Amino acid sequence: MDWGETFEFLWKSTGFANITWGNAVMIVLACFFLFLGIKKKFEPLLLVGIAFGMLISNLPVDNITSTPLYHPEWWTVQEVNYREVLQHGGLVDILYIGVKTSVYPCLIFLGVGAMTDFEPLLANPKSLLLGAAAQFGIYVAFFLAVCFGFTGPEAASIGIVGGADGPTAIWLTKTLAPHLLAAIAIAAYSYMALIPVIQPPLMRLMTTKKERAIVMKPTRKVTKAEKILFPIVVIIATCLFLPSVAPLLGCLMLGNLLKETGVTARLSDTAQNALMNIVTIMLSVSVGATAHFSTFLTTQTLMIVALGLLAFVFATVGGLGIGKLMCWLSKGKINPLIGSAGVSAVPMAARVSNTIGLKYKPGNYLLMHAMGPNVAGVIGSAVAAGFLMAVFS
Amino acid sequence: MGLSGGEISILDALIISVIGMLIVFAVLVILMAVVMLMGLIADKSPALAAKMPKIRFKKKKQAEEGGEAAPAELAPGTCGELVLVKTEERDAAMIMAIVADTLGTPLNELRFKSIKRVDGEDAATDKAED
Fold first, then answer.
1. ipTM of the complex model
2. How high is the pLDDT of residue B78?
3. Looking at the domain assignment, is residue A279 inside a domain?
């Protein structure tokens, strides 16, 4: 036995011998995102999984004694060879099938629907206008991305970050620009976590002290029949206009119907707990793993991060703008602060409106009023994504 | 439009943005109209329900005039109908049980004429007679 050759072989199979600067940078970056998720509590349920996926897919391998967990080159082609994926794929390749086929984002929406109470929206249907206005950021970022040289499908995927809705962003990007998936998912979830930092300065900039102190009247009580009818009506009305949004919005509304009917409590419970948690683990790890250094460490990623921030800013500005208009039209009965909740990040954006409202008038609880635009934003961003999907797919 | 090819001009991007924003508004405005209609119907329905006793009375009168079979007689011990206004049967049963318990009187010794929900409050008022 040649001990020298054996030790040389063993050394060559270790990560130390195979590590590149790209691996090292990504490992440091993954640890930074883990720090943000665990210590700073930035969307920990998703960011921890994403960062860990990023970590394991960037660990160096020798391709002889071990194979990569994820093969980025298999997924950025027009027609994916699923036979090869199933026969030779790593763990993350197998998990990624759920992203590529839209199963995970749709199942996440099923859980979101089962957890969402649309009562504030039904009590004040005008909230839908605020949810629509807050999609302004999507189109501004899309336009700017085209100006900066991105292709149409890439720009659409970048723009959807402004919708502040992770599953929607993943759903659109995996079809239109799969090579940008990791950067877009990380930007979307990071900015959603940063909403309490991004929105308040804009809210103070766009509203007067008097407007921020407006006390809104309590909303009317919504009947059970309305709550049951709502998901059915939404899916029919929306899909007649935009059939492309059916998978995402269909799952959202099915989840809500399971919650509201009162006869499917077990299914609703599964959708919002067990199923949601299982899918969250698989989605976050597989999306994080797509952040391979070969596709992630590019100037495009930095531009996506910058454009994503602009998307969030303009989304907030759009919501606040229409909020101010509604305040003026209603002769001061609507507090424009609820407009910023139109960016869908539920319930973070609504909480921010509530916090700012309380700061300027103690006892002025805006949470229930802000939840209306907040859930309307979920529908609005799904509609915007459906439109972009219809145009570019 | 079918722009899956990729490259688009700035003008195309501007047009897509404007159309996209209009579509989002159009779809959500339609939803708003539908939700408002649902709310309107829901608000009107208690008023319709309140008219129900009158309708029932008319039907009874019509049945007598028309020679149709009279409704079944009330069960022994029953002392008339209870009118529920904007109140679910389940809530009414609960209210009656609470009243009986609070008064310390058996439920079959109490007579409830009507239970009416007062708008703007969750509690319902009831009238009870011994």
1. 0.84
2. 59
3. yes
